[in-house]
Each structure stands twice: as C-alpha cells, then as structure tokens.
Write a structure and sequence with these properties.
- Helix content is 25%, strand content 36%.
- It is an alpha+beta fold.
- It folds into two domains: 2-118 and 281-300, Rossmann fold (3-Layer(aba) Sandwich); 123-279, Tumour Suppressor Smad4 (Sandwich), CATH 2.60.200.
- Strand 17 (261-264) and strand 18 form a beta hairpin.
C-alpha cells in the first residue's frame, strides 16, 4: 500500500544531547530526496495543527519524541525519528539507525509500523516505566543532566553505581488480570518498548503484542544483583530466579503506602497509586521494514 504524504515536517530540540541545527538535518534529508519544512513548537511545546497525511519527523531525544508522539496520535499522522539525544531508547527499540545519514535513509526505505503505546494514569509512554531504584537515577534532574553531559551513553551505569546504597526497596501491591502480588521490591519495570537507559534492555518486550511486560526485582545483596544483571546481558534473557518476577498483562494497578514517583521515557509522569495500560496499535511510526507488524506499509516520499 502506498502512502502519499501531503507535508513532511521537521521539528527538533536544540537542547538534545547530540543536537544539530535545522540546516544540518535539512541537508541530510535532501540528500535522500526528502524535502521537509521546519515546524516550530510554541512555548508550551505545542505544534501547529497536523493532518493525518502529514509525516512529522522529530530530531531529538526520547523526551522530544514522547512529547510530539502525542500530537501524532491525536492527528493519526506518521511519526519519523532522527535520533539526536543521549539515550535514544525509542529509536534503539525499533532498530532505527543512530547515525544521522543512516537514520535519514531509513525514512525513505523503512516501513510504516503501527505500534502500541503504554499509559500511566492519563499520560502515555513509549518505552519503559519505572518505580523504585531506577527512578532515583533520573529523579534528580540536575544530577542526571550533569551525568549525561560528561558520561554520555555511560551515564546510566554511572548513576547506578552512585545509587547502589538505595537497596532496601519498598513495599507495594501489584494487581493485574491474573491476580495480586504483594511484597518488597527494589524496582518495578513496566515495558512497552525494549530499550531504556541508553541501551539497557527488557529482552522480551515488544510494542506489537498488546501487552505490558512487568519485571519486579526483589532486594538482594549487591553482588547477587550484579550477577543477575550480568546473566541478563550475556544470555539476552530475564533470569529465571525467585528474585525476579515476570508478568504480562494489558492492565496493571500498583499501590504503596508512600507516594512513590513513576518515571517513564526519562520523565516523572505520575506517582503511586497508578494504573498502567496499553493502547494497541495507537501510533504510526517509520521503522525498518523488517519489524513484525501486520500493518506494515511502504512509505513513499516522492
């Protein structure tokens, strides 16, 4: 099926970790035969009205992609991504190339995929939502920005080392379509996409199955947690151990005595108690054509 685009719009975030100006991206796009016009957001991040036949190309990091994905969902238009942040987890999860020239080429050669979008209360998220240990890594915005500036892709592991003292965990109740779990947890992760933290992965998560993938980790000594992390990295799978609980569901409710923050796509989006869900096939996005989507369509920008 051929998709004719009435407009190709480019919006960027000059503050992203590897930001380039509009002229840089326009030249790279023209080299691929793509003529785009720059679209500027207002002070609140709002874009001019979009049409369902528009292609909105976002050059920025996960926060910028998250912001403008909501506009694409509302207009039912297609989202294109040029990774220009520090983590670029949305792009990584869909195997969108990180190199500028390759990312622009992919906008011509890729397919248009219909992906799921996660929700926490009234907010959306594209990749992964965290409660607990991982939120301490991004909860201090100033510290997080400083680590990103000096450590780049190593910012996430570096922050992990800094926060290893916060290992006591928290008590919380997890409810889903299959039952109720109560316990003390070090971290609870709910994944729609696969990548987080600049390349860390929830290996079995996919934004094509209509479900969230929950991984809840119980408090353990540092050396055991390191072993679990190393095992996951080497085997590219979640360790099968009583220390790690896995669940899949379209709906989760998580509550705790304290109002713990929920961090998703690098931003604090909510606090407990919180409801998590999935909106199946909610967002059209240009991604490599090999991605598993029944609704994959060829996009032509001629």
């Amino acid at each position: 099926m051929t998709l004719e685009m009435s407009r190709t719009l480019l919006v960027l975030n000059p503050a992203s970790g590897t930001a380039r100006d509009a002229a840089f991206w326009l030249e790279k796009l023209r080299n691929q035969g793509i003529d785009a016009e720059v679209c500027e957001a207002d002070a609140d991040g709002e874009l001019p009205p979009l049409d369902e036949t528009d292609l909105l190309i976002v050059a920025g990091g996960d926060g910028t992609v998250h912001l403008h994905a909501k506009a694409c969902m509302a207009a039912k238009c297609v989202l294109g991504v040029l990774p220009a942040g520090t983590g670029n987890d949305f792009a990584r999860g869909l195997t969108i190339p990180l190199r500028a020239e390759d990312a622009c080429r992919q906008l011509r050669t890729g397919g248009v995929q219909h992906i799921d979008v996660g929700t926490v209360n009234d907010e959306i998220f594209l990749n992964v939502a965290h409660i607990g240990f991982a939120t301490t890594l991004t909860g201090n915005a100033g510290q997080a920005r400083n680590h990103k500036k000096w450590w780049g892709r190593l910012a996430y592991p570096r922050l992990v080392i800094d926060r290893l003292r916060d290992l006591r965990g928290f008590k919380a109740t997890i409810r889903d379509d299959h039952g109720t779990l109560r316990g003390r947890w070090l971290q609870i992760t709910l994944a729609n996409g696969r990548s987080f933290g600049g390349g860390q992965q929830v290996f079995d998560a996919t934004p094509f199955d209509g479900q969230l993938h929950l991984i809840a980790i119980k408090p353990h000594p540092i050396h055991k947690l390191f072993f679990l992390w190393l095992w996951a990295r080497l085997t590219r799978s979640t360790p099968k151990t009583p220390a790690v609980v896995e669940r899949r569901s379209a709906h989760f409710e998580i509550s705790a005595k304290s109002s713990l923050p929920v961090n998703a796509d690098g931003e604090e989006l909510a606090c407990l108690p919180a409801r998590f869900g999935i909106v199946p096939r909610a967002l059209w996005v240009v991604a490599p054509g090999s991605m598993p989507s029944e609704s994959a369509r060829k996009i032509w920008l001629d």
